[in-house]
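Hi Q.,

Before the meeting this afternoon, I wanted you to have the hypoxanthine prediction in hand. No need to reply - just skim if you have a minute. The sequence and ligand are here:
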Amino acid sequence: MTVHIGAEVGQIAETVLMPGDPLRAKWAAETFLDGAECVNQVRGMLGFTGTWKGNRVTIQGSGMGMPSLSIYANELITTYGAQTLIRIGSCGGMQPQVGIRDVIIAMTATTLTSPSSAILREVNFAPCADWSLLSAAVAAAQARDVPTHVGGIYSSDVFYAERADLDEQMVRHGILGVEMEAAELYILAARHGRRALAILTVSDHLQTGEALPSGDRERSFGDMVEIALEAAFPDT
Ligand code: HPA
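Predicted structure with the ligand bound:
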């Protein structure tokens, strides 16, 4: 047990999928895993462990924002020995070629700051996805015929951003989409020698103002869960 996760050591798999929303963790576990068991309910941040095609997998909510994800990822890594951590979440599109429902696979995640900034101090660290996961996820997405973009994203600290100039610089530098968690996940994985990836569905678009209707979100989320599982277990 840790401060925020009630599971016993051994109840968490080496491969962990991390949606922001705990109810998405429940839905994904019930939909895609065999024998899913609830292993965490602390603060309602649900986590489930089961198997996918015989491979053990945990799906654990991360909450929203880097400070929340950082708590769960730290505890998953240091107490439970998680080796592979894949964020599955939503993001806002930032480029004209990025459409609603498209999938973005993040090679890297730019931030202004993250919980790790206190450790990195003056270092402008470049958070980076694990190549084996990234390449397997791209192959899985292409095989499913899902429009997919691979590149940099922006991990913001605010959903209700009021710095239009910042967004402008992100767009100008080719950032594909904005979310709030991936950079810290990549930095923690780097620090502890683990594998990490963020796979995102575009749920809204900053320039066009379009948003995914709530009924469509489940279908898009399902594609992403399957891409994540196929990336984690490419030989299955
Ligand atoms: N901003 C930040 N995070 C997000 C967004 C957004 O527009 N959409 C989905 N996650």
